[in-house]
Amino acid sequence: DCSKELPRTNAAGLLSYPFPGADELEEGKYVFAELDTSFAATLDFLGPDDLGMAFEKFDDDLLLVRSVKGSGAVARWNSFCPEGQKIACLDRIAAVNGVSGMPLDLLSMMHDELLKSAQVTIQRPVMKNIDIKRKEKGESLGIDLGLNP
């Protein structure tokens, strides 16, 4: 379990983690950059239960890697992949075999019993720190983040 590697957000609820140890992690807000942090991983499956990673679904359109197991298709990919392309906690599964979709659809595609191999598009999160200073205590920031409490 790599939950110790997962950051939590300082924007209430955007990416909050109820995982063990989450309250010990450095605060930060993570966003997914488009092109510069994406890569394709080819996963070869030995069977329908050979994926080797657990997921967390956020909102309706984010499927994030929660943990990577020590065995399975992901562990095999990680053992020989190019530098900087190991699948890790917080990586976003953006597409499977070139098809993007809802998290449950992507999971279903990866768990297809007939599938022997899949090309998975991964987006790596990038930390962005934003400092906002108020002139007076209690002053509104004047923005609405649109987040649910």
Automatic annotation (TrEMBL):
Protein's name according to its UniProt entry: PDZ domain-containing protein
Organism listed in the record: Polarella glacialis (Dinoflagellate)
